[in-house]
Specification:
239 residues; alpha/beta; Rossmann fold; 4-stranded parallel beta sheet; 13 helices; 8 strands; 52% helix; 15% strand
Length: 239
Amino acid sequence: MKVSLFITCLGEVFYPDVGKDVVEVLERLGCEVDFPKEQTCCGQPAYNSGYRKEATRIAKHTIKAFEGSEYIVTPSGSCAAMLEEYITLFDDDPQWRKKAEILASKTYEFTQFLVDVLKVEDVGAKFEATATYHTSCHMTRLLGVVDAPIKLLENVEGLEMQPLANCHDCCGFGGTFSVKMASISEQMVNEKVKHIEQTRATVLIGADSGCLMNIKGRIDRLGKPIEVMHIAQVLNQLK
């Protein structure tokens, strides 16, 4: 099975090791992974800010970059959701809408691909820790990916998972929202950190780099002894 890695902006700049973990897990499960070098930002910042024309231009570029891919896998629920949003950008252009539909049909968030396509719930990982899991908004509400990461984490040997109160609440990142509404964003992430502390977990796990960057930034500023990890990093801890 051939898989193209869509690393995303945050992944490439801030979390390159997560990309490596994704590749290693996929290869261990028998996938052949490539990396289309033409890929850029998915266009979500422009799209969310109302710059539809600019987002459409980026969408066309991304469609071309992954046109030859059999499957597209990304360690970001929000970026996977954005690739599905491309369809709405081409309501008045049947030719590009069809291309966008094809792109969306072969795009998967990392855990979604493992569970729904590869039919794997136990990747052979071992990680001794007490952890809790943050559910990102775009991944759960737009992609509808809820159970896949939980199933994978339940099968990690030595990992004790604790429930997170108000787990479906936004962490306050929201891309440009955290810039435009900084004071509100700060209150939201403070609430999230408080609930994480209440679990007494030593590790926070998530599947979206944007959320993890935001929460980790606040945890570090508050001096909390909580490690923040992408789920790919956990799943690549071998027995």
